[in-house]
Each structure stands twice: as structure tokens, then as C-alpha cells.
Amino acid sequence: MPPIEAGPIALQRGRLKSVYQVLRGKDLDTGEFSAERRETQFKILQDSQAEVLNLTYWHQFLSSLIGAGFRSAEMISSQSALLYAYAFYMVGRKRFAVPEHQLQRLIGRWFFASSLTGRYTGSPETVMDGDLNRLKEAKDALGFAETLEGMMASELTNDFWTVTLPANLDSSSARNPELFAYVAAQNRLGAPVLFSHKKVPDLLDPAIKTKKKALERHHLFPRAWLESQGVEDLKRINQLANFALLEWPDNIDISDMPPSEYVSQIRPRFSDEEWSRMHEFHALPGDWHEMPYETFLHERRKLMAAITRRGFESLKQP
Fold this sequence. Notes:
The chain is mainly alpha-helical. The protein folds into two domains: 54-155, no CATH class; 161-313, no CATH class. It is 60% helix and 3% strand. The chain contains 16 helices and two strands. The longest helix is centred in the C-terminal third of the chain and has 21 residues, at 293-313.
């Protein structure tokens, strides 16, 4: 009996075998080979390769991700989601002739959704096959867009935004796709930096080169203070909901002060409108600095999910 291969490895070998057969000139319906078909298939491969490697197309695709709020490579949690989004960009552009301004928003929205939901995390080739099969019914640019929108709508339900996403944000992983989507939404919405008059997208610009990052992830409830209160589990201390992006000088100034202390020192620097806007776009509940820590985490996760939803929905076609 032959050894049982791991699913993804066996699947990949099967795909490569199928590609090999097609390039040899095999008709997959009849099983017959022909030299003429072989030449045709090699010509298709040659032309397709030139298009996929066209830097103009690649840069246009990357600009759609930037438009969706993903401004740097550090915000990409899945290479599969990235490459498959590019495949859909090429299909939309070459097969369905989707106008570029519409395609940019649609593919940015598609990447946002597929990255956020981990669509291509498990058995990505199988999922992608299913996605491409759904496109067989599309006849034109409108059909292409409706197919992608339908797949997104089937996963990004109201329950996803209000139940699943807040639960997924209950994590301490630094490379969490939900966290990247939340920051992308802040970029999309032009959120102000917390405790600053600058904006998040400006300071996350990859063109800014400094020895220290312009923005740093800061514990809203500092670690040393939490430990002094009996919270010693690092997974609880380093919860995603306990972090916010601050300019590094503010991060240093705050140090290990409890929020009830440092917030009162910072508050006079801002008008009521500025203070309210910062709280809104950083998903901070009212009087959060006075809340019990676990209550704060629970409430903030819900607000982070709501901001992420706003950012995603801002990508809809006008």
C-alpha cells in the first residue's frame, strides 16, 4: 500500500501533474494528445506569463491595497491572500475588462475581506478553485463584481461583525489579521493618532524612514501597573484591545503610569471635539481609563470591530 501523503502536498503534486499534461497537448475531456494543442497551450502560457509579470499591472494592484488601508508589507498577514487577490485583479482586468477605477476599489475590498476572514488560510488551492468556478457564470464586468460581492456578503454577515470579529480580537498575537484590518480601517477613515494632532495614515507612510518608528504600539493599561494590580498573565496584558498606536515620544512619556493618571495630564491639550474624535477612531469607550481592565477589554473589542466594519464598508462603490 502506498504511503498516505499530506493533503496539501498531494494536492499540489496533482495540480502540477495536470499542468504538465495540458502543456503536453492533452485534451482533458477526451484524453487525446496533439502537437497542435501543445503549441497552443505553450503560447497561452507564454502570453499569460508576460501579463502576470507586467510591473505596471503589479503596481496598479498594489495601489488598490494601499487604497484599502494596507500601506506597508508589515500589514500583510497572508501571502496566499495577496497572490490570489492579484489573480482576481488580473482576471477582472483581462477577462472581464472591469474599468480600472472600479477594479481598484473592488480588489482592495476583496483583499480586505479575504485577509480579515482568513479565507485562504486552510487548503488555499481548493478554496481558490471554488472561487474561480463561481466566476464561470459571470458574463461581464458587472457579473464579475457581483460574484465577488456575493462571496464577501456570505461571510461578512452582521453576526460576523458583532459576534465573530470581537471574539477573534480576543488575542495577544502581534500578527493578527484582525488587528491589521483594524489599522487598515483607521487608515481608510483618516483617524488621528491617539493623543496627537497628526493622522495615522501620514505616520504609517512607508516613505518615512527614521531610526525609530514614527508610531509605536503602546499598552493603554501599562504592563507594570497591571502586574501591580495582580494581572500577571502576559496573554491578558498583551491583549490586542490593550494596544494603541502612539507617537514614540508620547509612548516614552507615559511609561508605566496608570491610565487614570496619564489621561488627566494629556486631556487639556485637546478640544472636546478632538478628544471625542480620537476616542471614536481608536475604539475607546467613554471613561475607559476608569474602567476595570477586563470590562475595558470586552467593550473595546466591540468598538474595534465596529471601526473595522466602517473601514471595510467605506470601500463600497459610490
